[in-house]
Amino acid sequence: MTPEGTRRIELSLPGLYNVYNALGAATLARALGASLDEIAAGLGRFSAAFGRFERIPVGGKRLLLLLIKNSCRRERGRPHARRRRRAARSRSSR
Fold first, then answer.
1. Is 37:30 a contact under the CB 8 Å cutoff?
2. What is the pLDDT of residues 12-38, one digit of tens each?
3. What's the CA gap between 47 and 13, in Å, rounded?
């Protein structure tokens, strides 16, 4: 809701975090001078990049594939990343 009015938008992406992302994008677009109609049209057209969110028919069923970044888990298996973080922390505490 803005002083200029409201627009109802249906996002094609699931998840509350995508609502937050859309609100952030809309806020920035409005601050940069985009109209409510332009923002609503842009968000309404938006879809995930191929491979990040896919519905794939398999054997009469629908497989939902979500690829979500989890940097904490990824770095657990990378001792060099932990060493770099520790070194950076020790330099900053001097």
1. no
2. 887 888 899 999 999 999 999 999 999
3. 7
Amino acid at 65: L
* The one-letter amino acid at 23: L
Return the HEC string of 27-61: HHHHHCCCCHHHHHHHHHHCCCCCCCEEEEEECCE
The radius of gyration computed from the CA coordinates of the chain, to the nearest angstrom, equals 20
Model pTM above 0.70: no
SS3 15: coil
Instruction: Give the Cβ contact number of residue 39 at 10 Å.
Output: 20
The token pair at 23 is 């609100």
